[in-house]
Please model this.
Amino acid sequence: MSPLEWIDAQRDFLLSELVEFLKFPSVSAQPKHRADLHATAEWLKRYLEALGFTVELLEEPPVVHAYYDGPAGAPTVLFYGHYDVQPPEPFELWESPPFSPRIHNGAIYARGACDDKGQVYGHLAAWRYLHQRYGRLPLSIHVVIEGEEETGSDTLYRVLKAHGPKWRSDVALVSDTAFFSESIPTLTVGLRGLIYTEVIVRGAQRDLHSGSFGGVAPNPAIALAQIIAALKNPDGRITIPGFYDEVRKIDPAERALWQNLPADEAHYERLMGSPATGGEVGFAPLERIGSRPTLDVNGMVSGYIGEGSKTIIPAEAKAKISMRLVPNQNPQHIWTQYKAYVESLAPPGVSVDVRLLHEPAPAFETPTDSIFYKIAEEAITEAFGKRPIPIREGGSIPVLSALREAIGGAPVILMGFGLPSDAVHSPNEHFQLRQLWGGIHAAIRFYEGAAKHA
Model:
């Protein structure tokens, strides 16, 4: 039975399994969901054991590591994914509960539907097909599925130091990226790095009456706003000293290739539902997303924000600020420069505490000249009917550099099937079923193709 025939015959069953997977509220950022992370890891353990994998749960929250010992001489593929998800808040903006999956208009809606449970499930289904088709898997496979990708992968970094060298593989495969659009398949060849910080500005020892002390009390909320405003010029360029010193120029060949994509300002305005785009002046939208560094405020809080009024000068203001980095930028150097610069921007009367919340991660690139990249190209071409275009994506998977190093420097193939319109990290996250079925088909053909290259 061909992959298409099998998928068509198994659709109801496959969807029922994916729904079961998505029901786990495996939110790594919130301690109240620690037990849910364990439950999800146990679900994966049972699933993989049923396919003949040897499975172990490593550290806390569990990193699921599984191994299938394939035929002698067959290559080894390491598959990486994550079972944790972003917090679903704000709940009131969801059209259906985030952990009660719903099929609607050809898509499955739930937190984690695309990022990354739906894409991970595509590989679980592919292994099921291969097992049924051949009686066993045609190659050796390491599976590494973690529960902290959304919060920095601290546990996996430790696990890789202790166990990674035992997981040496010929190639690593990751499905946690996206196509350019439903009609234009792409293979991701680069991801940006990430620095995630918190800035806390403090003034008086307590909130103050804005009438009694207004005019003499320092205002941390205004101070924080001034600091943030100073981090960028009106042209969108970041003002941190030395921030652009190591930024690599955009490859003219890549730029020429991207010009064939319908990635104009209007395209992104439609995707975002915004009347205009923003960002650094002088670069096209696709260049600003994939090849230029950025700085963004991810959240701010200060003072009274409840219903009604409360006339105070807040004692404290906080902001979460992240930076996405591009090739050649040194994350530790950028962090050091950023911290010193933010501290220097503090006005009189307030103190500033600049904290690093996750280990800084460099940008990540993958070669396009490996045999496994060619296999991925052919797999997507067959499954989706068009040859994929190599593209750089703006997101980050911080642990990939450490993963590649730990397993011996094998090429990492970023073969994801999401879409920019899937509302990842937002309310009403979803995964188009067409992408799910095509992803399963492509994954099957990738493993079959890889098995032929002993």
In short: The domain at 193-247+293-356 is CATH 3.30.70.360 (Alpha-Beta Plaits). The chain has two domains: 3-191+363-451, 193-247+293-356.
